[in-house]
Amino acid sequence: MTALLEVQNLHVDLGEFSLRGADLAVEEGAYCCLIGDSGSGKSVLLETVVGGFHPQRGKVMLRGQDVTNWPPERRNLGIVYQDFMLFPHLNVFENIVFGLRRRKFSRSGMEEEVRTIAARVGIENLLYRDIKTLSGGEQQRTSLARALIVRPQVLLLDEAFSALDVASRERMRYLLRELVKDLHVTVLNVTHDMEDVWTLADQVAVLHDGQILQTGKPEDVFSCPQPGFVAEFLGARNILQGTVLTCDKSGLTHISVGQNGLYSTDPASIDDRVQLSVRPEELAVARKQLPITLRNQIPVRIESLERRGPLVLIIGKAAGFSLEAAVTVAGAQEQNLNIGDNVVFAFSANSLRIISRETKHI
Ligand SMILES: Nc1ncnc2c1ncn2[C@@H]1O[C@H](COP(=O)(O)OP(=O)(O)OP(=O)(O)O)[C@@H](O)[C@H]1O
Q1: Is 5-233 assigned to CATH 3.30.413.10?
Q2: ipTM of this model?
Q3: Would the keyword Transport turn up in this protein's UniProt record (predicted)?
């Protein structure tokens, strides 16, 4: 299957910074989030797709066609920026219709197009309002309508929701989810907000220092992050080193980690040196050992408790390593957890992922 949008071995040299050989393929109708640390090159990649930067090497492909040398207006892409980029001297209608300026439409045809898309993004009652009188959320809906009115091949979002308050951001996510489904839009979304990834993305690509380090389905990338930057960036702080003791026929791998024996359902070979990861929210915290269904039960001493939004992050020290658990505030209060308490961190063999393995050569 040909990807709708593809960048191949993209090199963009901007002096101090370069995009170095980026490869990415987004299928038609897919929602891809581009994440990474600040200055990693997310916006440069997006602007190169749009045609704002010309790559020294590599290609931008749309529906299998090389568009690298096409001017931006010929690529038929829609883009929405964090700071809306609306014309302050034009009203909502005029801002939206601007997208159609190069199209052949009768006056009534244009009006109908604007009304249809404005209704779709929920601003049909604001068409003759001055841009300056709109809320942030309404301005962002206007720029979304302007981007969508051209029926773009790809909708590009550059931190499009980050200037909005939490409630407006949530509403925009809901709107986008509906639009993507109904209009079958393909999206490339630069974001810092993991909520976007979890609620919208079919695919995620992680950038660091001008390179795409990992791409895939969010659940795969989060549960099996590449060791090094990706694992740390995604907050997979529970990274452990171990040696494989046994692999039984039922698919259970027994691994020695510090002074504990842990179980994973990921395959490996006896004596492999493995790197393991378990997400903090997969850990249950208990005062005593739990039923055997949770294969991994590690006695720990609580070293710190930190409130983070609706969660409490708990660092527990085991023999030879530390682990972080994330539990709800109610859960932590119910158990009256305190620093210095001896508790058990429990998690299933399914939750313990082998993220890299080094086979011992004989
Ligand atoms: N026109 C330009 N000329 C020279 N350098 C640039 C230009 N545009 C961006 N850069 C540099 O390229 C690097 C990557 O910038 P980019 O905006 O792509 O980062 P980002 O990953 O989107 O970061 P953030 O998450 O902070 O927005 C930065 O060091 C930036 O200063």
Answers
A1: no
A2: 0.97
A3: yes
Closest ligand 1 atom to residue 36 Cα is 21
Residue minimizing CA distance to atom 9 of ligand 1:
44
Site to probe by mutation for ligand 1, drawn from 17, 19, 208 as the one with most ligand atoms within 8 Å of Cβ, is: 17
| CA–CA dist 230, 310 (Å, integer) | 25
DSSP letters spanning 269-306? -TT-EEEEE--GGG-EEESS---TTS-EEEEEEEEEEE
| Start-to-end Cα distance in the chain | 42
User: Where along the chain do its domains lie?
Assistant: 5-233, 239-358
* Ligand 1 centroid to residue 42 C-alpha, Å: 8
Interatomic CA distance for residues 310 and 213, integer angstroms: 31
Q: In what order do the strands lie in the sheet with 353-358?
A: 260-264, 253-257, 239-247, 273-277, 353-358
d(CA 129, CA 125) in angstroms, rounded, equals: 9
CATH number (3.40.50.170, 3.40.50.1820, 2.40.10.270, 2.40.50.100) of 239-358 reads: 2.40.50.100
- Ligand 1, atom 28, lies closest to the CA of 39
The three-class DSSP label of residue 200 is helix
Q: Tens digit of pLDDT for each residue in 144-203?
A: 999 999 899 999 999 998 888 877 888 888 899 898 888 889 999 999 887 788 788 999
Q: Provide the 8-state DSSP code for 118.
A: H
Ligand 1 centroid to Cα of residue 230, in Å, is 19
